[in-house]
């Protein structure tokens, strides 16, 4: 499959900042991204957690999306670190649900998910094999429209993808709530 320039830039980024990056740097970047998004969620006023502009996700929807997408990614990441390619698609796009758990429950879950990722990252090193791959749905904007496709990523590119996903949703939260 021939990639569009926007897609190729995304793959080049994941290779440079993921696959070829030192494990210690990835660990630090992931921890920083998790801490920043958690602070941002903690700063959302109670009265603004459910509201959003037309067509935009509320803070609660963004929080729930991260729980839904990052939670299952833990087992996939653990498999990659064990040298096993996980089944299925990791981090599918557009995960959300109409009936969400309460804010505090979701916020607690997100913190637990992040701590588990960081615990797993402690066992990762530059000597950890990159042979196992996870199929990840990647989304980039092409002419202001989302373009979805699937790629097979090693554990380092996978973690960089989790970090980028986290940062993108933190930016979305800041745009949508405008008080963070």
Topology of helices and strands:
Layout: H1 5-19, H2 23-42, H3 59-81, E1 89-90, H4 103-122, E2 134-142, E3 145-153, H5 155-177
Parallel strand pairs: 1-2
Antiparallel strand pairs: 2-3
Helix pairs in contact: 1-5, 2-4, 2-5, 3-4, 3-5
Describe the protein's architecture and organization.
The chain starts with a helix and ends with a helix. The longest helix has 23 residues, at 59-81. Helix 1 (5-19) crosses helix 5 (155-177) and helix 2 runs parallel beside helix 5. The protein has one domain (5-177): dinb family like domain (Four Helix Bundle (Hemerythrin (Met), subunit A), Up-down Bundle), CATH 1.20.120.450. The model has no long low-confidence stretch (mean pLDDT 91). It is mostly helical. Strands 1-2-3 form a three-stranded mixed beta sheet. It has five helices and three strands. The protein has helices spanning 5-19, 23-42, 59-81, 103-122, 155-177; strands spanning 89-90, 134-142, 145-153.
State the main characteristics.
180 residues, mainly alpha, Four Helix Bundle (Hemerythrin (Met), subunit A), three-stranded mixed beta sheet, 5 helices, globular
What CATH first level would be assigned?
A: Mainly Alpha
User: Which range best describes the helical content: under 10%, 10-25%, 25-40%, 40-55%, 55-70% or over 70%?
Assistant: 55-70%
**What is the average of the pLDDT values?**
91
Strand sequence of the main sheet, in spatial order? Answer: 1-2-3
């Amino acid at each position: 499959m021939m990639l569009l320039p926007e897609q190729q830039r995304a793959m080049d980024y994941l290779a440079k900042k993921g696959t070829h990056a030192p494990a210690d740097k990835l660990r630090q970047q992931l921890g920083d991204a998790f801490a920043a998004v958690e602070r941002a969620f903690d700063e959302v006023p109670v009265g603004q957690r459910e509201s959003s502009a037309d067509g935009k996700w509320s803070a609660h929807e963004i929080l729930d999306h991260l729980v839904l997408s990052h939670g299952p990614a833990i087992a996939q990441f653990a498999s990659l670190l064990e040298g096993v390619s996980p089944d299925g698609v990791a981090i599918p796009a557009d995960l959300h649900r109409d009936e969400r758990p309460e804010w505090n429950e979701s916020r607690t879950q997100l913190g637990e998910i992040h701590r588990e990722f960081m615990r797993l990252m402690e066992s990762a090193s530059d000597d950890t094999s990159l042979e196992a791959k996870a199929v990840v749905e990647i989304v980039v904007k092409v002419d202001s429209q989302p373009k979805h496709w699937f790629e097979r990523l090693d554990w380092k590119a996978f973690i960089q993808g989790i970090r980028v996903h986290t940062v993108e949703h933190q930016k979305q939260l800041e745009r949508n709530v405008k008080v963070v």
